[in-house]
Amino acid sequence: MKALLLIDIQNDFLPGGALAVNEGDLVVPVANRLMGQFPLTVATQDWHPVNHRSFASQHPQRNIGEVIDLDGLQQVLWPDHCVQGSHGAKLAPGLNLQGIDHVIQKGTDVEIDSYSGFFDNDHRKSTGLGTLLRDQGVQEVHLVGLATDYCVKFTALDAVSLGFETSVILEGIRGVELTSGDCARAVDEMLSAGVEVI
């Protein structure tokens, strides 16, 4: 069985949002069109506590975009975004919510970020996505969403490492591009790991 994974298609990642991805809104119609082609659709949702340590606001004298050491992990400092219960954390308007079978929330631990839909960034804890997919008999996953160079990439890499046949649909992803070329490098990294890029 195959599943469609919608990665973090949330208000804060759309134009005008706290961590806006350029053209992020363009993934919404692609996601809606694809849903009917899959027996199972699962959305991931960044769901941060208000004082999440990935937020630059939690580190005086530090700026958005800086990289710090956070308990032994490299952490990009982000603007406050996708705070639990906020408008910015909601799934995007226009997204066909009726077509989504399950929502997996991630980034809920204040101490560690979670780019991947499967695990936190140190693989300390699982989000439950892998178990959900296995219990449903899924062997193949296709990804669309935000952002190419972070949550899409890390979700795809974890999917492959867990043994899922994994594809990323290019027309349905957009990236942050903190540094020019980040998205192209992310695609190369996914290809090298065995992800099919469609």
State the main characteristics.
single chain, 198 residues, alpha/beta, Rossmann fold, six-stranded parallel beta sheet, two-stranded antiparallel ribbon, globular
Overview of this protein structure:
This protein has 198 residues and is of the alpha/beta class. The protein has one domain (2-48, 82-197): Isochorismatase-like (Rossmann fold, 3-Layer(aba) Sandwich). The chain has helices spanning 27-35, 129-135, 148-161, 182-193; strands at 2-7, 40-46, 67-70, 73-76, 102-106, 140-146, 165-174, 196-197. Strands 5-2-1-6-7-8 form a 6-stranded parallel beta sheet. A two-stranded antiparallel ribbon has the order 3-4. The protein is globular, with a radius of gyration of 16 Å.
Brief description of this entry?
The chain has 198 residues and is α/β, with parallel strands linked by helices.
SSE order and pairing:
Elements: E1 2-7, H1 27-35, E2 40-46, E3 67-70, E4 73-76, E5 102-106, H2 129-135, E6 140-146, H3 148-161, E7 165-174, H4 182-193, E8 196-197
Parallel strand pairs: 1-2, 1-6, 2-5, 6-7, 7-8
Antiparallel strand pairs: 3-4
Helix pairs in contact: 3-4
For CATH, the homologous superfamily is named as Isochorismatase-like
Q: Widest sheet: strand order?
A: 5-2-1-6-7-8
**The level-1 CATH class:** Alpha Beta
End-to-end separation in angstroms reads 18 Å
CATH architecture, by name, is: 3-Layer(aba) Sandwich
Q: What is the number of domains?
A: 1
> Whole-number radius of gyration?
16 Å
Mean pLDDT: 97
- Tertiary shape: globular
